[in-house]
Amino acid sequence: GQSLEQPSEVTAVEGAIVQINCTYQTSGFYGLSWYQQHDGGAPTFLSYNALDGLEETGRFSSFLSRSDSYGYLLLQELQMKDSASYFCALYSSASKIIFGSGTRLSIRP
Amino acid sequence: NAGVTQTPKFQVLKTGQSMTLQCAQDMNHNSMYWYRQDPGMGLRLIYYSASEGTTDKGEVPNGYNVSRLNKREFSLRLESAAPSQTSVYFCGGGQLQETQYFGPGTRLLVL
């Protein structure tokens, strides 16, 4: 089967950098994505890694290492509005996506 | 361009009642999905449709049926609602292996 693990909660300070890790078990997949979800809202897409390495989109970067079955989301220059839950998701075959259980990011002033 | 829309936004059902959740997208996506999200959890795939006319079971399909009416619309039906189906339901659309765009969600309470 397939599974993803990520920390349930992370706390950081406004203006700092935080890394949210995601480890996975799968026999094969197309890529790893990250989604942000504010309380009461819908998930919104942040980034997608099809290949190993770093993808940068503004303040957010995402990394994938297939050999280590590991990825992470890096958030820089944290703002209070970044307080949300962050989900990693595996794109497996046949149009299927498996989501992790999410990491709740709390930001202190 | 509304993206992905869902109706209704909220619904309260009694055990045993039936209902259909509607989803429509105007982004020309081939694939559409239905997920449920329970409190403090990630999304779990109920059913998906890789293209018009095809549907497949996801991780938690029991108690649900779907219909891909056309490329734009993908509905989810609960034939006999149970309290265990109390959840937030999200419809998503996307191209294979690419990003997904989600609707605003339907909050369902089954008493």
Q: How would you characterize this protein structure?
A:
- The complex is a heterodimer of chains A (109) and B (111).
- In chain A, 0% of the residues lie in helices and 58% in strands.
- Chain A is built from no helices and 11 strands.
- In chain A, strands 2, 4, 5, 9, 10 and 11 form a 6-stranded mixed beta sheet that branches.
- The model of chain A has no long low-confidence stretch (mean pLDDT 92).
- By secondary structure, chain B is mainly beta.
- Chain B has no helices and 11 strands.
- The chains are: A mainly beta (109), B mainly beta (111).
Write out key terms for the chains shown.
heterodimer; A: 109 residues; mainly beta; 6-stranded mixed beta sheet; 5-stranded antiparallel beta sheet; 0% helix; 58% strand; B: 111 residues
Q: Nutshell version of this structure?
A:
Chain A has strands at residues 3-5, 9-13, 18-25, 31-37, 44-49, 53-57, 60-65, 70-75, 84-91, 97-99, 103-108.
Question: Considering DSSP H and I runs of 4 or more, what fraction of the residues of chain A is helical?
Answer: under 10%
Order of helices and strands of chain A: EEEEEEEEEEE
Mean pLDDT of chain B: 92
What is the helix/strand order of chain B? EEEEEEEEEEE
The protein's oligomeric status is heterodimer
Q: Separation of termini of chain A?
A: 41 Å
- Provide the β-strand percentage band of chain A: over 45%
Tell me the overall shape of chain A.
Answer: globular
Biggest sheet of chain B: strands, sense, closure? 7 strands, mixed
The Rg value of chain B, from CA coordinates, equals 13 Å
